[in-house]
């Protein structure tokens, strides 16, 4: 089989081969090219030692030279070139204590995680497939190279990577590999939060975010996100739901675009329900105030996974408001826009829609028309150019100071009260009206 590879990759391989060494494109780039996907990057493996690679190319970077990796620069693009190697013992669940270079390609390929990632290619040799990766691609299977327990002993994150590749490609996980994951999932405690977050990000933003169910069924979430396990076990017996909290969550993720903020919001939006569940006399379950509890739990999870502050703020805000606790009216939508800002408000509409799509027919019939109303009100507000923030308020702090108000906290408080007046009635957003209103506030402050 002949593959199309980038000219710069072919050039690196040709240079190494002309110098008497073996060289191949290897791993994910081979897999993705066979599947007709655009590879994210191209890795090259070679029998040449790092020093020999460096001698052949004008610009190189010692990326991980102790493990045999040199980055060859072609223009502004870097290509990792790694010497065939055999890994020693793994004591930290991630890195081998030592590596030994080898001249045998098969020895290098057998240390890789999954069969579909253990293929190599060069134009001279074609595809090298020692572990039936092509067959597993054909059968849409994720299978470890060799003994699954050995592979997960080497790097515990591979267990989560198996689910991530499954979700990205729509493949199933082979049964021996599944059994090993169930047995060895507790080893994920050895993996850093940052590495776990990266894999979860890729899984959630894949074409199949609902495959997060595998994270639960294989015992991974019990280690990295036990809050989700509780959601999978929490029923929702009421007129709006016919699924558990967890199954509802999985369904909602498939109804929203693959944006990290949105997918994480949907994953976390109902995790507080397990805490607040109550049952009435008719056996109906209620989840009062679950949004605020879910927002708190979301913040704890995002902090634990070392997310940046901006992401934590956006996701927790969206979780807190995902039930749209605002009056469905022009005034209510103006207040929501003022409180959240336009960017988050528009994301909230997508979150509310996905949440509705994860409910039963009765709930969709009730909630989707209400969301359509909200969108119409938003459209009218934008068309009218209504003021919904201090930025477009007709008076500024400097105007209040010029009118005799002393600088300080009172200025900010007064501006906020002026904004509230304008949110109630947009026609009040004139300098004359607001300065008169500010003078009334000032007079009341003097009386106090």
Overall morphology: elongated
Total strand segments: 13
Largest sheet data: 7 strands, mixed
Low-confidence stretches: none
Distance between the termini: 86 Å
DSSP summary: helix tally: 23
Q: What structural category arises from helix and sheet content? A: alpha+beta
The neighbouring-strand order within the major sheet is: 3-4-5-2-1-8-9
Can you offer a commentary on this structure?
The chain has 448 residues and is of the alpha+beta class. It is built from 23 helices and 13 strands. Helix 13 (245-253) crosses helix 19, helix 16 runs antiparallel to helix 17 and helix 18 (330-340) packs across helix 19 (342-357). The longest helix has 24 residues, at 361-384. It is elongated.
What distinguishing features does this structure have?
alpha+beta, 448 residues, two-stranded antiparallel sheet, 7-stranded mixed beta sheet, single chain
Helix and strand topology:
Elements: H1 7-18, E1 23-26, H2 28-35, E2 43-46, H3 50-56, E3 60-64, E4 69-74, E5 77-83, E6 85-87, E7 99-101, H4 105-109, E8 120-122, E9 126-128, H5 133-139, E10 141-142, H6 148-154, H7 158-169, E11 172-173, H8 175-184, H9 193-204, H10 212-217, H11 221-224, H12 226-232, H13 245-253, H14 260-268, H15 273-276, E12 278-279, E13 285-286, H16 290-304, H17 309-320, H18 330-340, H19 342-357, H20 361-384, H21 397-402, H22 409-424, H23 431-447
Parallel strand pairs: 2-5, 10-11
Antiparallel strand pairs: 1-2, 1-8, 3-4, 4-5, 6-7, 8-9, 12-13
Helix pairs in contact: 6-8, 7-9, 13-14, 13-19, 14-17, 16-17, 18-19, 19-20
């Amino acid at each position: 089989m002949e593959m199309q590879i980038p000219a710069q990759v072919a050039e690196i391989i040709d240079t190494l081969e002309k110098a008497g060494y073996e060289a191949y494109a290897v791993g994910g780039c081979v897999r993705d090219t066979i599947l007709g996907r655009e590879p994210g990057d191209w890795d090259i493996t070679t029998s040449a030692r790092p020093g020999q690679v460096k001698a052949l190319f004008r610009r190189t970077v010692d990326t991980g030279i102790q493990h045999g990796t040199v980055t060859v620069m072609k223009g502004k693009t870097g290509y990792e070139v790694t010497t065939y190697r055999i890994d020693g013992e793994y004591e930290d669940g991630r890195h081998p204590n030592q590596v030994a270079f080898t001249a045998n390609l098969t020895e290098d390929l057998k240390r890789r995680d999954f069969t579909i990632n253990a293929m190599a290619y060069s134009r001279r040799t074609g595809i090298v497939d020692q572990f039936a990766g092509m067959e597993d691609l054909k059968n849409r299977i994720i299978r470890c190279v060799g003994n699954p327990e050995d592979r997960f002993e080497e790097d515990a994150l591979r267990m989560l990577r198996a689910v991530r590749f499954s979700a990205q490609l729509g493949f199933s996980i082979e049964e021996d590999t599944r059994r090993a994951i169930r047995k060895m999932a507790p080893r994920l405690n050895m993996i850093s939060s940052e590495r776990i977050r990266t894999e979860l990000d890729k899984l959630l933003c894949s074409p199949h975010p609902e495959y997060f169910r595998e994270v639960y069924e294989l015992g991974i979430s019990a280690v990295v996100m036990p809050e989700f396990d509780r959601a999978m076990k929490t029923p929702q017996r009421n007129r709006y739901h016919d699924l558990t909290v967890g199954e509802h969550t999985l369904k909602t993720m498939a109804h929203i675009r693959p944006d990290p903020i949105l997918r994480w919001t949907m994953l976390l939006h109902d995790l507080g329900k397990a805490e607040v569940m109550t049952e009435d006399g008719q056996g109906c379950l209620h989840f009062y105030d679950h949004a605020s509890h879910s927002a708190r739990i979301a913040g704890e999870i995002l902090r634990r996974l070392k997310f940046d502050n901006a992401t934590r703020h956006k996701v927790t805000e969206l979780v807190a408001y995902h039930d749209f606790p605002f009056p469905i009216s022009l005034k209510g939508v103006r207040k929501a826009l003022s409180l959240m800002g336009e960017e988050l408000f528009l994301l909230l509409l997508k979150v509310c829609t996905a949440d509705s799509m994860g409910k039963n027919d009765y709930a969709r019939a009730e909630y989707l028309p209400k969301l359509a109303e909200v969108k119409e009100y938003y459209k009218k507000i934008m068309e009218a150019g209504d003021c919904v923030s201090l930025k477009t308020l007709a008076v500024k702090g400097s105007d209040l100071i010029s009118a005799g108000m002393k600088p300080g906290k009172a200025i900010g408080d007064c501006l906020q009260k002026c904004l509230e007046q304008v949110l109630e009635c947009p026609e009040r957003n004139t300098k004359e009206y607001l300065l008169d209103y500010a003078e009334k506030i000032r007079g009341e402050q003097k009386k106090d």
